[in-house]
Amino acid sequence: MIRLNGVEKIYPASRKSSGHHALKGIDLHIEKGQVFGIIGRSGAGKSTLVRTLNRLEDISSGQVVVDGVDLMSLSDAELTKFRRHIGMVFQHFNLLSSRTVFDNVALPLELANTPKAEITERVTTMLELVGLTEKSDHYPSQLSGGQKQRVGIARALVVEPKILLCDEVTSALDPETTEQILDLLKGLNARLNLTMVVITHEMSVVRELCDRVAVIDDGLIVETGEVFNVFVQPQHPTTQSMVAGEIEANLPKSLRKIIKPTRTSDSENPVVKIMFIGPTSHDPIISQLNRVTGIDFSIMSGQVEYIQDQPFGILFCEARGGIEAAEKGISFVQSRNLTAEVIGYVEPDHRPLG
Amino acid sequence: MSSQIIGLLVSSTIDTAYMVFASLLVGTLIGGPVGVLLATSGKGELFEAPVFNKVVGAVVNATRSVPFIILAVAIIPFTRLIAGTSIGTNAAIVPLTVAAAPFIARVIEGALRGVDSGLIEAAQAMGARPLQIVRKVLLPEAMPAIVLGLTLTTVLLIGYSAMVGAVGGGGLGDLGIRYGYQRFRPDIMLTVVVVLVVVVQMVQSTGDYIARRLDKRQR
């Protein structure tokens, strides 16, 4: 559906800036019906990348083929027509303040000179689909952020596009609203067989919504794969630190404070991080660990999540019995095809009093 | 005050209104499109034409840097060419329009540039042609600002129209100068000033009201 070959984008130097090599040779393949995430830190080039997919950004070299069409070969008029079959949703909604909800959603149809009766029919259906029928006559300023983004989504989908580009669509929303918008997008993807490209800097958006993900760093794709694999076994340092950030956020702050990165006294016990991935994550690993090795592992913090319906757990344990005990435990865990490592050290009597 | 003076006052007010609205109308017809072009012909914009943009910008600036009273006198030959005479209410419309058009162009340019560039991007992504973007996005979104700008222009033109009284135009300015100043009638002068103040207030309030009605951004 979408194929990028060696796409480069160089912003030439001007009086205002010294030029910028935003994309440094991107190869990408997105299949029909997929929800494809592109994740990266700000400035990594992800917004530029998504804008090459409808040629809001011209590329400097390479090739962008969308639905069998080489975008650089299109004339201005052809490009305008082509864009009418690609929906785009924006971080800041970009709704017209002078138009009602209904008229905002109707705009793309008006641009294509759709007959009035058909506009009314399609906009009405679309507003129903995103649950905004009652807000039809309201102006954007009267809506909440989540409602505005629903209008943005309705506006993008009213032309029945094959591809939907989402540029940081939840970044301006609170967590609860984010959840609702992601659910909506997920439902629409299944219902309309849409190919979706989702740009984000939030690992959680990728986890909730995407099938595949590409990690972009400094204008290059550094990792591509199934979301689950990338999430649980990140290869590239950038991905690892993004995933780690997501995991560390799961470790309570009070614990993070008492875990020391290096061992300062012999009395301290290692903290072992065990990751449960794939089929063995259902095994009663902790009780086995105790039975087989005879070492007590006290659980400090833990979590099991489901990514793409596969379990993925993390457990932080204190190995009672020092370094040797920890090493024994780690080798046992590894023998069960799970990963474990020492992430720090704590005093045995670390538990907060009261 | 005699009924004759009151009659003069009424007809002068009508003359002023006529001059102001005629020049506002023609000025907008000329300055409006120029303003749209100024706002959209910069580098990387909808109708990219940087050289054209610079040239038109320079012409607009040149016209605006000439004080109105000098401009009105300087273009008398042009006024005669257009209106057939350089004296009277109709003739005064010519220099007023020449002053109004570049001002309006800048007003419209400013209003359009105030529209969030994200909206232009969204429209482009939807497959809008440049003219459609101007018509369906830029102008409607900028309308409150345009109305306020045109209100400002109207007030400016009321002031200018009083000045053309000094060079043979009609209207309230003419009345003030000929009766109030040259015939030593401070009562007429005062009345003219009061009428001007009231008219300006009314224009501003009306403009503010319309702009507020058009602005859907907060309520």
Report on the structure:
The complex is a heterodimer of chains A (354) and B (219). In chain A, a hairpin with a 2-residue loop joins β4 (61-66) and β5 (69-70). The model of chain A has no long low-confidence stretch (mean pLDDT 87). Chain A has 354 residues and is an alpha/beta fold. Chain A contains twelve helices and 14 strands. In chain A, the strands form three sheets. Chain A has a six-stranded mixed β-sheet, with helices on both faces. In chain A, strands 2-1-4-5 form a four-stranded antiparallel β-sheet, with helices on one face. Chain A has helices spanning 46-52, 76-83, 101-111, 116-129, 145-157, 175-192, 203-209, 227-232, 237-248, 253-258, 285-293, 322-335; strands at residues 2-11, 20-30, 35-39, 61-66, 69-70, 86-89, 163-167, 195-200, 212-217, 220-226, 269-277, 296-307, 310-320, 339-346. Chain B is mostly helical and 219 residues long. Chain B contains nine helices and no strands. In chain B, α5 packs across α7, α7 (130-164) runs parallel beside α8 (172-181) and α7 runs antiparallel to α9 (186-214). The longest helix of chain B is centred in the N-terminal third of the chain and has 38 residues, at 3-40. The radius of gyration of chain B is 20 Å and the shape is elongated. The model of chain B has no long low-confidence stretch (mean pLDDT 92). The A-B interface holds A 54, 56, 80-84, 86, 88, 90, 92, 94, 96-99, 107-108, 110-112, 139-142, 155, 159, 165 and B 116, 118-119, 121-129, 132, 136-137, 140-141, 143, 214, 216-219.
Keywords:
heterodimer, A: 354 residues, alpha/beta, four-stranded antiparallel beta sheet, 14 strands, B: 219 residues, mainly alpha, 9 helices, 81% helix, 0% strand, elongated
Radius of gyration of chain B: 20 Å
Query: Which oligomeric state applies?
Result: heterodimer
Our measurement of the CA-to-CA distance between the termini of chain A, rounded to an integer number of angstroms, reads 59 Å
Largest interface: A-B, 28 and 23 residues
The profile of the biggest β sheet of chain A is:
6 strands, mixed
What is the gyration radius of chain A calculated from CA atoms? 25 Å
**What is the number of strand segments of chain A?**
14
